[in-house]
Input
Amino acid sequence: MKFRFVWIGKTKNKSIKALQDEYLGRLSHFLKCEVVDIKDSAPHETVDIEGERILAALNQKTFAVLLDVKGESISSQGLAGEIEKWQNRGLKEVSFIIGGAEGVSRRVAERADISLSLSFLTFTHEMARAFLLEQLYRAYTIIKGFPYQK
Output
């Protein structure tokens, strides 16, 4: 299985970028990972235009996971269980989508196979990326029985 991370903009904060790279490297020990940075919207562009760029970046057969505040709340153990289900289903690729500051378009939300929430709290998009990568790494340590998750 392969994880693709499709998100708006590049991480500008060097400390958060280093944290993302750290967890992306750790996660890459378990499966192939790819990051797709989508261009930030110009001030005159709508969420629909941004959404079209997101949809264009998704492979047609990918299993799409939208990170959204309105998504399903899930524990680290629950996420590990979901990943195991995806593996058992034989999914070849899972794409995690993090939209821009205004969220995602209706079309992107409809394209998502599931929607997950990292928290009821609001985070910057850069921090959400780092948290997502850490939680996916944590899920794999749970699956493999490694001591990290404790």
Q: What stands out?
A: The radius of gyration is 15 Å. Residues 51 and 104 are 6 Å apart (CA to CA).
